Request: fold
Amino acid sequence: MPEEPLIQEMNTDAEIISAFATLHELRPHLREEEFLATVRRMQKSDGYRLAAVLEGDGEDRVVMWSEAP
Reply:
């Protein structure tokens, strides 16, 4: 039986950096050397949060959203 996917909020620097490749596929203008600082700035100024659906097959999906009004 396949494992259930795990939904994990990405909070640490390492977790955020690990999401770069997936987000870069959707947003090719993102630059890896600026990614962490960009996400941290968006978290602070706009309330953005980052989460990933971690699949056992290595095909992770990443979601970024804001709780700001």
User: Anything to note?
Assistant: Residues 32-46 form the longest helix (15 residues). The two ends are 41 Å apart (CA to CA). The CA atoms of residues 5 and 55 lie 5 Å apart. The helical segments are 13-18, 20-26, 32-46.
